[in-house]
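Two proteins, back to back. First:
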Amino acid sequence: MKTQRHSKIIELIKQFDIETQEELTEKLKESGFDVTQATVSRDIRDLKLTKVSSSDGKQKYKFFIQDDTEVTEKFIKVFKTGVISIDYAQNIIVIKTLNGMAMGVAASLDAMDNDEIIGTIAGDDNIFCVVKTEEKAIKIVEKLKAKINS
């Protein structure tokens, strides 16, 4: 749902000169998304939307495609450095990390944009990832282990 909402937000700000979060919230509701302003605020931050001046001098949201290569490489380095082990039980993946590294590794995992992962919970040295099916959990574990060994 989040991915669909983000796609719709990008579509809306390309189509309309949207000046405020309230305006964007209304447009999303008109498009069938049941959202709050707080959700829209997080989406704006997640999408790294920027306000720019429109042709009439007002402000509007704009989406810029960004080169996140450097950021992605840093996340991969944190992931490789922090992970001790990865295993799964049915549709739950458990990632053990160095003490204090779980939040950083979880952020790295989120940045890898694994759509198969429904959600993650990070403690001090453990991360639980819920995946839709055991088959997908197996594939993700294989992919993550390969990333560590690359």
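And the second protein:
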Amino acid sequence: MHHHGYLWTGPKDRFDQEALRRPPHPEPPPPDSRPELIGRYREVAAEFPASDLPPLETAYWLAKPRSWVRGTWSDPGEAAAWLRQRLTEYAPRLTSCDLGRLDLVVASAADRLGRGGDVSLGFYLERPAYLSLALVTCSPNRGNPGLPCPAA
């Protein structure tokens, strides 16, 4: 078991584009479906894997390009340390985070990763921007074991 780290920052209104943050349904619509439904399915199927937006379900980061992995760790404590470093780095821009609780957030992340879970955090930055941080357990992911490992 190991963990991959992901980071995204961008405009909050882009983050709110939930349609681009959902994977396509596993079954395409039947061939006799309305053309707009078939077109929308094709659009989502093409855009979701390539979209840099954080997925609504944390495990789906594993379906994104390998180049978006910011780090890989076998030790949950090392992965949580990466999270601490990112939060410290972004601290001057955070508008909604109590960094006095940083030790608690990092310890909780290490504990969750150690039990095979994922960690996903989000924070508002100044100017209507957003920071998304995720640590995703891999090989396999407990929430979605069928997703491939991007390091493979």
